[in-house]
């Protein structure tokens, strides 16, 4: 039976590989930061090759998302109906905001009355956070 020979890794690393490694490390640091702080709102001000040098805002914190949903209570009744949810998800950049509003109602509307109350808002925020929406 033939033996497989393992070759040692090349000593030289190209500039392109080093750059890709730096970018991967940057993204890994971002993920570790998000996990450590339990918040999703950070601004990256790091100059890296290939990465846009402008400030990049990433996903939203629970408090900011809760405040955003409250802003879309247009009639001021303290409840979010499907049309208000649709507008909020449109602001968050949902591809199909009407569909996302329907799904969020199914997920967060505990009493089935067709609106999200203050008590149900926590579940709505948990639902929306899992999609990584951003606010600029």
From TrEMBL:
Lineage: Eukaryota, Viridiplantae, Streptophyta, Embryophyta, Tracheophyta
The EF-hand domain, residue ranges: 60-95, 106-131
Annotated TM spans: 20-44
Single GO term (MF): calcium ion binding
InterPro entries, sorted: EF-hand-dom_pair (IPR011992), EF_Hand_1_Ca_BS (IPR018247), EF_hand_dom (IPR002048), EF_hand_pair_protein_CML-like (IPR039647)
Record key words, sorted: Calcium, Membrane, Metal-binding, Repeat, Transmembrane, Transmembrane helix
Keyword Transport found: no
The protein, known as: OLC1v1016732C1
Signal sequence extent: none
Originating species: Oldenlandia corymbosa var. corymbosa
């Amino acid at each position: 039976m033939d033996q497989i020979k393992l070759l040692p890794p090349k000593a030289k690393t190209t500039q392109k590989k080093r750059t890709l490694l730096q970018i991967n490390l940057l993204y890994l640091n971002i993920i570790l930061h998000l996990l450590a702080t339990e918040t999703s709102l950070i601004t990256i001000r790091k100059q890296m090759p290939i990465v846009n040098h402008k400030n990049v805002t990433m996903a939203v914190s629970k408090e900011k998302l809760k405040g955003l949903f409250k802003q879309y209570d247009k009639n001021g009744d303290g409840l979010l109906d499907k049309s208000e949810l649709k507008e909020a998800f449109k602001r968050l950049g949902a591809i199909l905001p009407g569909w996302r509003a329907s799904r969020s109602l199914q997920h967060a509307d505990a009493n089935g009355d067709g609106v999200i109350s203050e008590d149900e808002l926590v579940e709505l925020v948990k639902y929306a956070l899992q999609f990584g929406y951003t606010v600029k």
